[in-house]
């Protein structure tokens, strides 16, 4: 018994004709019939009811058919996985990214990657670091790009830093706060806050500076374009990394806010962007190539900005 015989038996069940099944498998009808007979001899029973014009499987044939389908499918999956692990002209890469990298870094890197490897199917999901870490643990993705400070001390994760991203506050032109000469973080809490999921350390820092124990944003979304539109059409104050909306700032449709009790160069307000993967798990060649591309694009964008 071999996979070839099992494939022939599956084809016979699909076509219900020795002639049509043999033609579909690309062999002569006598050779096809001998293969089915050989399978029956291997099991020591009749697998096909030849007295039935539909050539239905016997009860024994039904059992063989069920296992044959599983074995043939398993062999195909095995071949696909090995191909994905060893070649870059096939397979898939699944990864995740936070909302800020999804604005520029990831699209730029994916464009370069598919130009170099057009046959690799590339799938990436955009979400916050909490949900991405769960997806990584469930092996739904091979790695993700987000703030790494939550994962650096966890032995289950391996981190590779990228360029830190400056955290800033922004609002629409004409916002009431822009009429004030000096602003403190207390003023910020007089208006709705719109942000992605904030790392606990940054949230605690902002709360403490304003005499609060903690706070929850009024609007929370992982979709940066939607967040920016909310800020543009309301008095909400946006919080995020500058790279995600630098074009809006450059053309004046968004304005940066500065707080006198929060130094502009405060390192803890920056996003510690990086790549997170699982410790002890071997990345596929496609994933490794994608990470190399992300690192290269990140360096290119930094050099251009400088």
Number of strands: 10
Q: Class of the largest domain, according to the CATH hierarchy?
A: Alpha Beta
| CATH architecture descriptor of the largest domain | 3-Layer(aba) Sandwich
Spans of 5+ residues with little confidence (pLDDT < 50)? none
Number of helices: 11
Which structural category fits the helices and strands? alpha/beta
| Biggest sheet statistics | 5 strands, mixed
Assembly of the depicted chains? single chain
Order of helices and strands: HHHHEHEHEEEHEHEHEHEEH
User: If you average the pLDDT, what whole number results?
Assistant: 88
**Distance between the terminal alpha carbons, to the nearest Å?**
66 Å
Report the C-alpha radius of gyration, rounded.
29 Å
Report the helical percentage.
40-55%
The CATH superfamily of the largest domain appears as Periplasmic binding protein-like II
How many domains, in number, for the residues? 3
The shape, in one word, is elongated
Biggest sheet, strands in spatial order?
2-1-3-10-4
Percentage of β-strand residues: 15-25%
CATH topology of the largest domain: D-Maltodextrin-Binding Protein, domain 2
